[in-house]
Amino acid sequence: NILVEQTDPELWSAIVRENQRQEDHIELIASENYASPAVMFAQGTQLTNKYAEGYPGKRYYGGCEFVDIAEQLALDRVKQLFGAAAANVQPHSGAQANEAVFLAFLKPGDTIMGMSLAEGGHLTHGMPLNMSGKWFNVVSYGLDANEAIDYDEMERKAHESRPKLIIAGASAYSLRIDFERFAKVAKDVGAIFMVDMAHYAGLIAAGVYPNPVPFADVVTSTTHKSLRGPRGGIILMKPEHEKAINSAIFPGLQGGPLMHVIAAKAVAFKEALQPDFKAYQQQVVKNAQVMAETLVQRGLRIVSGRTESHVMLVDLRSKGITGKDAEAILGDAHMTINKNAIPKDPERPMVTSGVRIGTPALTTRGFKDEETRMTANLIADVLDNPRDAANIAAVRERVHALTSRFRVYS
Ligand code: PLP
């Protein structure tokens, strides 16, 4: 620290201010979390210096005997955590994990099916500006009248369009996903079944959300969301796909793996195998339910009616405020949130009528039911009176009273 402070004070100041922001604000972005000091330390080690193209025991560089141990630990632990037969821990990110699956199984012009971005899916599942949307013919499924995944529509469209790959998984969907049903449809139409569990991975590891591994050909994930590891990706797969996926990651898509990040993934997987991780994830789900119930009591609507996970979408229209404005004003009150389109949103994607709220980060800092209820009430207090500067200042004070009782790292 002293080194960066002395050699690069400009950068150091940004780091210090970001650290302070993370301590002082209540973090409600559903895809964020606070990695443990052990995870962060592993990423700052000399492993960052090492080239290790290839896989443990089969590298294109010398001197890999110790990074091999790190990668093998990450592989063994992640397979144990999710009950997977085979894994790859080298994807630099969730998006790259998904691209590797496409590279392994598809050719440009093939048909894929995924959940529409506008109804909760991720941009790598076929959004027109993403590689997935530019290179493939995309058929999307969405939600039914109750804002649950429309499984019948998905099944009908799969039979009509015969996709080569079907993707289940979402970035803004609060309910449990019926992976078994997807698997059956994929089998019926001869498609590869891929699950992108990025958002739910920590919950799945702890057994509080359905595990897709028994049903899917391949499962991709990030490691930094509910799983609480370093930024990065992983792929789990049936053994028959291991060769294709491994060669899609290297040499197909990436060069040298980030060995320091892989070491940090190993640390995070070990943490996730401990009994207290299960208790943590149970509280994440409990806190999400308390958050949703309290917001409903305060006159807001939760998309899909409830949450069965760590995440929810809040329809703001009853308060006459857009997602864009809510994000800015809640930020002023030191609660960090992201605007998010709701199904059939009348507003533009950069404006939206909703916000997405998640509980992994606030649960890591120790919030239980009571503090989460207080947080929900603070959100509602802001939304009830968003243009009143004195109201925002009063909420900010109460946020600070909470965050100073629950420090993250200090
Ligand atoms: N898949 C899903 C479902 C996601 O929500 C995200 C990120 O938000 C990703 C993939 C992409 O992960 P990354 O940002 O690491 O590329």
Automatic annotation (TrEMBL):
<dbReference type="InterPro" id="IPR049943">
    <property type="entry name" value="Ser_HO-MeTrfase-like"/>
</dbReference>
<keyword id="KW-0554">One-carbon metabolism</keyword>
<dbReference type="GO" id="GO:0035999">
    <property type="term" value="P:tetrahydrofolate interconversion"/>
</dbReference>
<comment type="pathway">
    <text>Amino-acid biosynthesis; glycine biosynthesis; glycine from L-serine: step 1/1.</text>
</comment>
<feature type="binding site">
    <location>
        <position position="117"/>
    </location>
    <ligand>
        <name>(6S)-5,6,7,8-tetrahydrofolate</name>
    </ligand>
</feature>
<dbReference type="Pfam" id="PF00464">
    <property type="entry name" value="SHMT"/>
</dbReference>
<dbReference type="InterPro" id="IPR015424">
    <property type="entry name" value="PyrdxlP-dep_Trfase"/>
</dbReference>
<dbReference type="InterPro" id="IPR015421">
    <property type="entry name" value="PyrdxlP-dep_Trfase_major"/>
</dbReference>
<comment type="subunit">
    <text>Homodimer.</text>
</comment>
<comment type="function">
    <text>Catalyzes the reversible interconversion of serine and glycine with tetrahydrofolate (THF) serving as the one-carbon carrier. This reaction serves as the major source of one-carbon groups required for the biosynthesis of purines, thymidylate, methionine, and other important biomolecules. Also exhibits THF-independent aldolase activity toward beta-hydroxyamino acids, producing glycine and aldehydes, via a retro-aldol mechanism.</text>
</comment>
<protein>
    <recommendedName>
        <fullName>Serine hydroxymethyltransferase</fullName>
        <ecNumber>2.1.2.1</ecNumber>
    </recommendedName>
</protein>
<keyword id="KW-0032">Aminotransferase</keyword>
<keyword id="KW-0808">Transferase</keyword>
<dbReference type="InterPro" id="IPR001085">
    <property type="entry name" value="Ser_HO-MeTrfase"/>
</dbReference>
<keyword id="KW-0663">Pyridoxal phosphate</keyword>
<comment type="similarity">
    <text>Belongs to the SHMT family.</text>
</comment>
<dbReference type="InterPro" id="IPR039429">
    <property type="entry name" value="SHMT-like_dom"/>
</dbReference>
<dbReference type="GO" id="GO:0008483">
    <property type="term" value="F:transaminase activity"/>
</dbReference>
<keyword id="KW-0028">Amino-acid biosynthesis</keyword>
<feature type="modified residue" description="N6-(pyridoxal phosphate)lysine">
    <location>
        <position position="225"/>
    </location>
</feature>
<comment type="pathway">
    <text>One-carbon metabolism; tetrahydrofolate interconversion.</text>
</comment>
<dbReference type="GO" id="GO:0004372">
    <property type="term" value="F:glycine hydroxymethyltransferase activity"/>
</dbReference>
<dbReference type="GO" id="GO:0005829">
    <property type="term" value="C:cytosol"/>
</dbReference>
<dbReference type="GO" id="GO:0030170">
    <property type="term" value="F:pyridoxal phosphate binding"/>
</dbReference>
<feature type="site" description="Plays an important role in substrate specificity">
    <location>
        <position position="224"/>
    </location>
</feature>
<dbReference type="InterPro" id="IPR019798">
    <property type="entry name" value="Ser_HO-MeTrfase_PLP_BS"/>
</dbReference>
<dbReference type="GO" id="GO:0019264">
    <property type="term" value="P:glycine biosynthetic process from serine"/>
</dbReference>
<feature type="domain" description="Serine hydroxymethyltransferase-like">
    <location>
        <begin position="5"/>
        <end position="378"/>
    </location>
</feature>
<dbReference type="InterPro" id="IPR015422">
    <property type="entry name" value="PyrdxlP-dep_Trfase_small"/>
</dbReference>
<feature type="binding site">
    <location>
        <begin position="121"/>
        <end position="123"/>
    </location>
    <ligand>
        <name>(6S)-5,6,7,8-tetrahydrofolate</name>
    </ligand>
</feature>
<keyword id="KW-0963">Cytoplasm</keyword>
